[in-house]
Write a structure and sequence with these properties.
The structure is a single chain. With 309 residues, the chain is α/β, with parallel strands linked by helices. The protein has twelve helices and 14 strands. It has two domains: 162 residues, Thiamin diphosphate (ThDP)-binding fold, Pyr/PP domains (Rossmann fold); 128 residues, Rossmann fold, CATH 3.40.50.920. Strand 6, helix 7 and strand 7 form a beta-alpha-beta unit.
């Protein structure tokens, strides 16, 4: 049964706490199953209340005393309401705090447009010392939890509200800083994706394959630092790059890829994501269609791009 990455991440951390020493700070939200952490480890769990700026300040203070700290709440609050605190108190002193941002992108449509974090990667990516990771499914989320528990610098983990389709098998290994080719049916183009939309990218690739168009699909599970070499190699092999993200196309994965290609390997590309507008309320699948982010839309973007070559 499919599980949301936020739930998989939180449950894996709770299990890891049996053998690893870390603290958890929450903002009185049911973000990623860590709100129950205190039931198992009451001396290692702190509920700060609905005060996200204080949440980051407390997490930074605990980390400055030598602790590994996880600070968890909705991504829209971690990246915007507590932006200054993440920058000044966590990134600037390079402290051992993992900021867990949940309910990202259009997945949060049922909770309302104001809670949809579609700018968080752009904000966090601009901060020095910050590493950003995003799992595509349950196994990837659990692997990232294990990685995060041992990581010692500022880290932002981007997690999804709803269950995600299973993509990876039992042998999956998360390699920080490395992109992974998850499908290769040809070299007409490369679809570069991250997070929950990786499944739609794969669906688009299979649709294209049925039409005689072979492409590569690349999972960018580490958004910062970006695997520049993998992006440049894909560009050289295909000559056409389509990025797919549940985020604004301004400042996110598409921007990061464009920056690399602009400097090292100018290549035809298209960005599939949320254009220069706010999110809206509604069913996520309806919102993906509204924003031209379905698997059919991704396939159409690829065909449009290779038609221009």
């Amino acid at each position: 049964m499919a599980v949301a990455t936020r739930i998989a991440f939180g449950k894996e951390l709770t299990e890891l706490a049996k053998t690893k020493d870390f603290l958890v700070c929450n903002a009185d939200t049911k973000a990623c199953a860590l709100e129950n952490f205190g039931e198992h480890y009451p001396d290692r769990s702190f509920s700060i209340g609905i005060a996200e700026q204080n949440l980051m300040g407390v997490a930074a203070g605990l980390a400055s005393c030598g602790n590994k700290v996880f600070a968890s709440t909705f991504a829209v609050f971690t990246s915007m309401r507590a932006c200054e605190q993440v920058r000044q108190f966590i990134c600037y002193p390079n402290l051992n705090v993992t900021v867990v941002g949940t309910h990202v992108g259009l997945q949060v449509g049922g909770d309302g447009a104001t809670h949809a974090a579609i700018e968080d990667v752009a904000i966090m990516r601009s901060m020095p010392n910050m590493t950003i990771v995003q799992p595509a499914d349950e196994r990837a989320a659990r692997a990232m939890a294990r990685f995060a528990a041992d990581f010692t610098d500022p880290l932002y983990v981007r997690l999804h509200r709803n269950p995600s389709a299973d993509i990876y098998g039992p042998g999956y290994r998360f390699e920080p800083g490395r992109a992974q080719t998850v499908l290769s049916s040809g070299s007409r183009a490369a679809i570069v994706s991250s997070g929950i939309l990786l499944n739609k990218a794969l669906e688009a690739a299979r649709l294209l394959e049925s039409q005689g168009i072979g492409v590569k699909v690349i999972d960018v599970s580490t958004l910062k630092p970006l695997d520049d070499e993998a992006i440049v190699q894909a560009a050289r092999e295909t000559g056409a790059i389509v990025t797919v993200e549940d985020h604004s196309i301004i400042g996110g994965l598409g921007s990061a890829v464009a920056e690399v290609l602009g400097e090292r390997c100018p290549t035809k590309m298209k960005r599939v994501g949320i254009r220069d507008r706010f999110a809206s309320s509604g069913d996520p699948e309806r919102l993906y269609a509204e924003h031209s982010m379905t698997s059919a839309d991704i396939a159409a973007a690829v065909k449009e791009l290779i038609g221009r070559r």
